[in-house]
Design brief:
- α3 packs parallel to α7, α6 runs antiparallel to α7 and α7 crosses α8.
- Helix content is 72%, strand content 0%.
- It is elongated, with a radius of gyration of 19 Å.
- By secondary structure, the chain is mostly helical.
- The chain has nine helices and no strands.
């Protein structure tokens, strides 16, 4: 790859990373081309060297935002050797995750947009949901219905973070995160082992 091609690829990647953070914090309708390019240190006119359209950029940024969550969730789960699922719950429902959406799971801010989005957007969102379900199910060797439990867990995680970010009262927000984490871990401990 020539020097100018390498620079072009690096610039494109920089714009994608900035756009993926913006998508997590502002959704898919707000990030403007001029602001993204300025933040990346590029001119507005150079945008079309990297992307076909704003929709093209947002679609790619959304895919990046969704996919980056997999590695983060797996890392969070593996931090607790004794109980990876509890480790995942604690990391996902941490105040830091709530307070720093630019680095957080994209399922939370993009759910409503995916519901209104085109087929490609829905498919990208669904792919990430399925990936998370597989990860969560793989962390539980004892549950009789690992897929169902994974669905309940993921729905509770995403919903709790969404609500905790949306409410005005910080103490209530903290209580939501803590209570859902406690309830999910209690549910795990009460799940009967599979029938022999």
């Amino acid at each position: 790859m020539g020097h100018s091609q390498a620079e072009k690829a690096a610039s494109r990647e920089r714009v994608l990373q900035i756009a993926s953070r913006k998508v997590r914090t502002e959704g898919v309708t707000r990030p403007g081309i001029a602001d993204l390019m300025k933040e990346a240190g590029l001119t507005h006119g150079g945008f079309y060297k990297h992307f076909d359209s704003r929709d093209d950029l947002i679609a790619q940024a959304t895919a990046v935002a969704l996919a980056e969550g997999s590695a983060k969730m797996e890392h969070a789960a593996r931090k607790n050797d004794q109980d990876p699922r509890a480790g995942l719950i604690d990391a996902y429902l941490a105040k830091r995750h709530r307070d720093v959406p630019a680095n957080g799971c994209a399922l939370v801010p993009l759910g409503a947009a995916a519901g209104r989005g085109d087929q490609h957007f829905k498919e990208a969102y669904e792919k990430q949901v399925r990936t998370y379900l597989e990860l969560i199910a793989s962390l539980d060797d004892n549950a009789s219905d690992t897929r169902g439990e994974a669905m309940v867990t993921l729905s509770a995680l995403v919903g709790a973070v969404l609500i905790s970010r949306a409410v005005a009262d910080k103490n209530f927000s903290d209580e939501l995160l803590e209570t859902v984490a406690d309830q999910l871990k209690r549910r795990m401990s009460e799940t009967p082992p599979p029938a022999a």
